[in-house]
């Protein structure tokens, strides 16, 4: 019996998601660590300022618990890819910034992803690529209507920020 269309869609999306970490140049990072780096970078420049990102903001953005974020950040800090800074005004607030090594790793990873995307575009052609982009955006919009995480997603005091801000 052939899988339903919903199951086939999930399988295709899963295959695409599994491919992402294999494309990255640094195989020593887990996909969670890589997503944390991309998110920290994205959030630090999101409003035009290259500012460190608070850990609670990362947790909300990624829809994961503070302990999970702390564990990933500890690993990234040990690998010298990020630095954590405790606020002088409020010692409960911790900000995260990428190190030069973290910035270099992300630049390399992004170049790898762009190279694959360019190959896909050249293989599909312009019209099919535009249609694929349109459909992927539509899927994301439709899925975001069905899935709205709980307020703060388990992060004490967190407010929903609307649209997901991950890469």
Describe the structure.
- It is a single chain.
- The chain is mainly alpha-helical.
- The protein has 6 helices and 3 strands; from the N terminus they run ααβααββαα.
- A hairpin with a 7-residue loop joins β2 (82-86) and β3.
- The model is unreliable at 151-167 (pLDDT under 50).
Estimated share of beta-strand residues: 5-15%
Count of separate DSSP helical elements: 6
Structural class: mainly alpha
Helix content: 55-70%
- Distance N to C terminus: 36 Å
Based on CA inertia axes, which overall geometry fits?
globular
The tally of beta strands, per DSSP, is 3
| Spans of at least 5 consecutive residues with low confidence | 151-167
How would you spell out the order of helices and strands? HHEHHEEHH
Strand order within the widest beta sheet: 1-3-2
Topology:
Elements: H1 5-22, H2 31-45, E1 53-54, H3 55-62, H4 66-78, E2 82-86, E3 94-98, H5 100-124, H6 126-146
Antiparallel strand pairs: 1-3, 2-3
Helix pairs in contact: 2-3, 2-4, 3-4, 5-6
């Amino acid at each position: 019996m052939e899988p339903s269309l919903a199951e086939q869609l999930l399988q295709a999306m899963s295959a695409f998601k599994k491919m992402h970490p294999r494309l990255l140049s640094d195989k020593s990072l887990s996909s969670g660590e890589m997503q944390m780096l991309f998110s920290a970078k994205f959030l630090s420049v999101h409003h035009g300022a290259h500012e460190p990102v608070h850990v609670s903001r990362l947790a909300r953005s990624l829809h994961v618990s503070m302990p999970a974020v702390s564990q990933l950040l500890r690993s990234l800090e040990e690998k010298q890819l990020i630095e954590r800074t405790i606020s002088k005004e409020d010692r409960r607030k911790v900000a995260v910034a990428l190190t030069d090594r973290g910035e270099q790793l992300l630049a390399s990873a992004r170049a790898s992803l762009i190279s694959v995307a360019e190959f896909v575009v050249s293989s599909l052609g312009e019209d099919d690529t535009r249609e694929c982009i349109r459909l992927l955006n539509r899927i994301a919009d439709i899925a975001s209507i069905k899935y709205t995480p709980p307020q703060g997603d388990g992060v004490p005091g967190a407010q929903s920020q609307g649209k997901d801000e991950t890469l």
